[in-house]
Amino acid sequence: MRIPTWRLGLTSGAVVLLAAAGIGLAAAADAPSSAPAGVAEAAPTGAPGATGAPGATVAPQRVRARELLGERAALGARLLRLGRHIVHVEATVTDRDGKLITIWLDHGTVQSVGSGSVTITETGGGSQTLKTDAATIVHLGKADATLADVTAGDEVIIKSRVDGGGALAKRILIIPARSS
């Protein structure tokens, strides 16, 4: 049976888009909540021609750093809105050594957290049980967290690596509850 080319292109495009969204979510969770290191606040300077009275102007580099942080926060917010619609994504990619690996992105509500595993309920009624270990990275919004911070009822997005049929959670993003 031959699969139409347009269907293969559409499917592969969707997989790439969803994988990029998952990577973007992980990057947004790692984004600093303050100005990047090395960007110093400029001392206030007077207006041109002023007689020594300090003004309220800020160096152009500092203004651009603020704009970039605002753009990054806006991108993170858009990716999070997209991420809330993900249920389960499976992608095969190459690692740093060029080997093929399978990555899962799962979004759902934590059903239970046990020693060495977390079970989530996905939209549509499905559930996934994913192994965890000491190397599993956990974020609560933009802040670092631990596996002890993952509790039943939390909305999470989990990036896992599949090896030998079992999935090991590499990153867990706990999505903070929406404010009313």
What can you tell me about this protein's structure?
This protein has helices at 5-30, 60-83; strands at residues 88-94, 100-114, 117-121, 127-131, 137-140, 143-145, 155-163, 166-175. The protein has 180 residues and is an alpha+beta fold. It has a domain at 88-175: OB fold (Dihydrolipoamide Acetyltransferase, E2P) (Beta Barrel). Strands 1, 2, 3, 4, 5, 6, 7 and 8 form an eight-stranded mixed sheet that branches. The radius of gyration is 21 Å and the shape is globular.
Q: Multimeric state of these chains?
A: single chain
What's the CATH class of the domain at 88-175, please?
Mainly Beta
How much helix is in the residues? 25-40%
Poorly predicted ranges (pLDDT <50, ≥5 residues)? 38-53
Q: Report the major sheet.
A: 8 strands, mixed
Question: Radius of gyration, rounded?
Answer: 21 Å
Quick tags:
180 residues, alpha+beta, OB fold (Dihydrolipoamide Acetyltransferase, E2P), eight-stranded mixed sheet, 2 helices
Quick overview of this protein structure:
By secondary structure, this protein is an alpha+beta fold.
